Structure formats: structure tokens, C-alpha cells
Amino acid sequence: MLGWFKKKKVKDRADSAEHMAEQVSEGEPPAVEAPKSILHEDVGVLFKQLTKGLSKTSGTFAKKMDALFLGKKVIDPELLDDLEEILITADLGVGTTMELVDDARDKLSRNELTDSQALKTVLKQKITEFLVSSDKPAELVMPAEGPFVIMVVGVNGVGKTTTIGKMAHKFVQAGQKVVLVAGDTFRAAAVEQLKVWGERIDIPVIAQATGADPSSVVFDGLEHAIRRNFDVIIIDTAGRLHTKVNLMEELKKIKRVIAKKLPGAPHEIMLVIDATTGQNGMSQAREFSKAVDITGLTLTKLDGTAKGGIVVNICREFDIPIRFIGIGEQVADLRDFDPHEFAEALFAGDEIQ
Ligand SMILES: Nc1nc2c(ncn2[C@@H]2O[C@H](COP(=O)(O)OP(=O)(O)OP(=O)(O)O)[C@@H](O)[C@H]2O)c(=O)[nH]1
Ligand SMILES: [Mg+2]
């Protein structure tokens, strides 16, 4: 398994800071490797855990697929209509569904599909293609020098703070010195919640009182973190609706303040999307991208939904890599997103459990 993050390389000391920021080492092993426990874990075990986590999604999707194709040898228009319905209810979205079904129709008319099993195979191939369609690598890229600043954004209750805790844990396991900054000064108990995560994984949390200006909390927090040489600084932000202009402006301000304190930062602006929210997740991705240039996504709560199709739709529509998927509330329930593995798990259903 590949590492889930790597460090940029400083090739030439004479280079300017901006130039250095463009240099990403290609084809070399990551400077900081994933912890041994992850590298050495049996891939089969990890796959089983993923399929179990995705049991609602894969169970329902794969079961419906099997029911559709069971006993049907020939592909008729009725079967294609049913297929269309399954794909739409799994949240693949109308556009993605139409492309899949139209492709099947084309292949059928060119006699390239002889039976329903062949159709299932084609479907899986095409869904895998969508999942790998982004040409941006899924791994996080740390700067060559200085701290790696990650700002986490998203609408209310999607799992930002939980994802931060899980992600921080991964960095700690990989030997990084991590600090959290409590940029959610709006919701009561948000600061406390982040502190609980900090205690759980034994890392510091920089916070001010609820009601403080988030930009100044982030500014002061960064100053403190930079002085104390942290490798990774993860900033929590308050949940906000992507349709609220003033709140999106506040997010832009926080981003500007970070860049002012540390040129080149934030290096990662991660949007967290709740996979159970369905197609609304698409407009969240669109609007947050417009406001702050999202560089990576995490899709949470995939353990709680029968509609994991949003992952396929997001990959097809946006050129933003999915970094992680959340498959539970515990610290270990954050998985690196691997499109091939995800496609396998989606179609595996009951076979694996
Ligand atoms: N089942 C499941 N629950 C999750 C997952 N990620 C987060 N949650 C739960 O979702 C709820 C909200 O999580 P938070 O991390 O507080 O979400 P948030 O986006 O920070 O919320 P606000 O700060 O209020 O906007 C909590 O009960 C989490 O335990 C996941 O992958 N699976
Ligand atoms: Mg939160």
C-alpha cells in the first residue's frame, strides 16, 4: 500500500520560496513513510473492514444488482430501466446514471453485450473508471520546509471535527508533531469537543473562548504553532451553509489570514461531505470550491448509508481528489481512499461479510 502523504523535496537551495513550492518529487518513495502497522497489515483484512464499514452501501447496492441480473439472461429495455432506478437511488446522480445506462445501450446496439453478466462487468469497469478519473493523486503533499497547514471546512454536522481527530491520529502514528487549532468559536461546546480529541490522542489544542473572532484565533494559533515547530497544524472551522454569503466570506478571510501568517499556507483545504446528504453534497463541493479552492475531500458516514453512489458522482464531476472516507465514529474509522478497492467493496456486498 502506498503512503497517504509525502513531503515535497527541496531540489535547489537557490530556488525562490514560490518555486520550491512547485517542486514535488515524482516517482520517489515518500520521505515520511506510513507507519509500519499500516504498511504491514494484511490487505485482505483491511478490505474486509472496508466492506464491513460499507455494508449498508455495498450490501444494498450489490444485492439490488444481483436481484436485477438473477435469472435474466437477455438484456431488455425493462432491465435497463430498473438499472437506471437502482443507480439513481444509490445517489449516483442523474448525469452519471444516464452516462452509464446510455453506454450500456450503445454497447448493446453494437452487439458488444451478450448477456446480463457481461453488462454487470461493464458497469463495474465504468464505475471504476469514474472513481479513478481525477488525475490528481489522492495523497496529501506536505511542504518541503515548515509546518503543513490543513484547514478543514464544511456544512454543519458533516463530521469535520471527528475527521480532524482521526486524521491527527494518523499523523501522530506516522511520527509527526501535530497541533489542533480551534477555529470553531461559534458553536457552543465546539472547543470542548476538539479538546477531547486532543486528549484522546495526546496532542495539544490551541483555543480561545467561544465567541472570539475565528480569524484572530487562527492567526494567534498559527503564530504559537510555528514558534513551537509543529510539523502538522490542523485548523477546525465552524460548520456553515454553503449558501450563506457572509459565512463564506468569513472562511475566505480565515484563509487570507493564514496565508498572511505563513506564505503558501494553507497547503490543504479539506472539504468534509456527509455521504448521506445525497446530491446536496454536489452543490456543497461546488460552492465551497468557488469560495476557497478546495484541495481535497473527505466523505464521511459511509457506514451509515445505502447511498454510497455520491462518491462515484463526486469523482466524475470534480477534479478534487478524495483523500479519506469515514466509515465510523472511532479514531481508526478513517480510511485512505483507494478507487479500485472502493469499487470492489461496492460490488462485493454480502460475498465478503
Ligand atoms: N457513523 C459515522 N458517524 C460519523 C462519522 N464522522 C462523524 N460522525 C458523527 O457525526 C456527528 C457530527 O460530527 P462532528 O465531527 O461533530 O461534525 P462537525 O462537522 O464538526 O459538526 P459542526 O462543528 O457542528 O459543524 C458526530 O456524532 C460524529 O461522531 C462517520 O464516518 N461515520
Ligand atoms: Mg465541528
Structural write-up:
The protein has 353 residues and is an alpha/beta fold. The protein is 48% helix and 13% strand. The protein has helices at residues 17-22, 36-40, 43-53, 55-69, 77-89, 94-109, 116-131, 160-173, 190-201, 214-227, 245-261, 280-292, 310-317, 339-348; strands at 5-7, 140-142, 148-153, 178-183, 205-206, 232-237, 268-274, 296-300, 322-326, 334-336. β7, α12 (280-292) and β8 form a beta-alpha-beta unit. The radius of gyration is 22 Å and the shape is elongated. Mean pLDDT is 85; it is low at 12-40. It binds guanosine-5'-triphosphate and magnesium ion (MG). The site of magnesium ion has 5 residues, from α8.
Q: Keyphrases for this structure?
A:
353 residues; alpha/beta; binds guanosine-5'-triphosphate; elongated; eight-stranded mixed sheet; two-stranded parallel sheet; single chain; binds magnesium ion
Helix content: 40-55%
Count of strand segments: 10
Distance between the termini: 22 Å
What's the average pLDDT? 85
Tell me what portion of residues adopts beta-strand conformation.
5-15%
Poorly predicted runs are 12-40
List the helices and strands and how they pair.
Elements: E1 5-7, H1 17-22, H2 36-40, H3 43-53, H4 55-69, H5 77-89, H6 94-109, H7 116-131, E2 140-142, E3 148-153, H8 160-173, E4 178-183, H9 190-201, E5 205-206, H10 214-227, E6 232-237, H11 245-261, E7 268-274, H12 280-292, E8 296-300, H13 310-317, E9 322-326, E10 334-336, H14 339-348
Parallel strand pairs: 1-2, 3-6, 3-7, 4-5, 4-6, 7-8, 8-9
Antiparallel strand pairs: 9-10
Helix pairs in contact: 3-14, 4-5, 4-14, 5-6, 7-13, 7-14, 8-9, 10-11
